[in-house]
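ok trying this again, last paste got cut off
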Amino acid sequence: MLDPHRLRVFRAVVGSGSVQAAADNLGLTSSAVSQHLGALARETGLVLFQRQGRGITPTQAGRELAARSEEAMSQWGRLDSVVTDLREGRSGRLTVGYFASAGSAWMPDLVKRLALELPGLTVDLVLTEVTSRNLTPDIDIVIDPPDGGGRPGHRHVPLASDPFVAVVPSAHALASARSVGLADLRGETWVSNDVIGSQGHRIVVSACAAAGFTPRFTVQAQEHHSAIQFVAAGVGISVMPRLAARALPSDVTRLRITDPTPVREISALVRESGRPNPAAERLLEMLLELNRHPARRGRTATR
């Protein structure tokens, strides 16, 4: 088994670019850092660095180990934090997975409320769209696949139906309408706001197929913040979840979509650990309350 401390020292050398800089950053001697590097090389059986001038540079294997060890070290850091919480008598730690639009729309206020109610609680928020799925949050806010949600060892709790809307420049010919048929967007230049192949992207493309066309994406923005700015610049239109289109600049308008309306279903997956988790249950209550009263989500009215 690899020594986490040696991995940490190794990553510090790769990150800082030299043994001496890593030693200064870690509060160690350069000799101690070199000893850790040598021990890690023996443990792994890899050549991790090579000489370059008067210094060293990571080999391809070294760069690969540094990149692939990032998540493992993050997980180790979380475990270390759990031990610290237990030692110092803090009431616990809650890990919450989320995707970007739910994170910006829901999580800041909910985490603030949770911190006031449970002041000894540490909340770790993880953007699961860009994190390996071997992470197991206590609560994971997810988009259900079309055939239904669920995950072994988790309780599946539906939260909300989130319809997609059309986001268009305010000067667009359709901007004065309150709604637009999906087929009416057939000839538009489209800006993507999600990764190709993701749940959201598949929902939109499937709805367009049902309306008899395939959207022409000319800009792969792949996230809604950038997509909105492309729309504002007049590059094209974008079809995104209403939750992602809550706050728009003045030169952008959103429209309801009909015939058909693409919709994504949002749920919470609550990890069943076999022991009570009051913090997870309280956050779940808050999420359910929030979505029973949509006006509290802070959404602006559809223009």
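PB: full thing came through this time. Residues 18 and 55 are 7 Å apart (CA to CA).
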